[in-house]
Design brief:
elongated; 139 residues; alpha+beta
Amino acid sequence: MRLWAAKCLITAVSTIFLMAGCALGPRIVELNRIKYNESVKVTSERQLLLNIVRLRYVDSPSSLIVTTIAEQPEIAASLQALPFFTSSAAGQAFGGYAGTILPQAQLSGAVRPTLSYAPMDDQEFTRRLFTPISLEVVA
């Protein structure tokens, strides 16, 4: 009976390890690319509104652009077998081992994005800010 339980445990743990790799690669790009795109778009629009307010109150506009986004996905797994001794084995030094093995499995993951910013060229930014928008672009 113990052999069957050990085989089931090994099968379950190996399945978890194999499935953990499915979250990396192309699938993680599918999950995160749109979120990063939307976040950069929203923050750029907020930055533009802030600069319009700055110009209204005769403050100098400034802007940062996101130059690169590097993402580091990580999956860590560990498997341990810890001895557990019962109280009946407490009085026996080396003979009559009365303990069991407790398996422990741990699976964790993290995504660590690194963003790089660069100040936008003041002349180019100011030119774009003050260039009138045509009616065709608005429509």
